[in-house]
Amino acid sequence: FLFDGETIESIMRKVERWYDVRVIYLGEKPQEKFVGGVSRLDNVSKVLKMLEFTSGVRFKIEGRTIYVL
């Protein structure tokens, strides 16, 4: 799971497909571009923590729904 200059929207579309989850944006979608990578075999929470670490984006998980805060 590599991304280079992708938006959070693009990354979260991949997360939806790979982890069979639903993503809901609360507020405006962040406009930053992201660079990085993680294994698709990693737990979805590890992927989200990596994204939180590299940006101001925060996530909340409830069941199979991920909220982008």
Name a few traits of the molecule:
two-stranded antiparallel sheet, 69 residues, 33% helix, 33% strand, three-stranded mixed beta sheet, single chain, alpha+beta
- Sheet/helix structural class: alpha+beta
Order of H and E elements: EHEEHEE
Number of strands: 5
**Biggest sheet: strands side by side, in what order?**
2-5-4
State the shape: globular
Beta strand %: 25-35%
Radius of gyration: 11 Å
Tell me roughly what share of residues is in helical segments. 25-40%
Describe the fold and architecture.
Helix content is 33%, strand content 33%. It is α+β, with helices and mostly antiparallel strands and 69 residues long. It has a three-stranded mixed β-sheet, with helices on one face.
Task: Outline the fold blueprint.
Blueprint: E1 2-7, H1 8-19, E2 22-25, E3 33-37, H2 44-54, E4 59-62, E5 65-68
Parallel strand pairs: 2-5
Antiparallel strand pairs: 1-3, 4-5
Offer a concise description of the structure.
The protein is α+β, with helices and mostly antiparallel strands and 69 residues long.
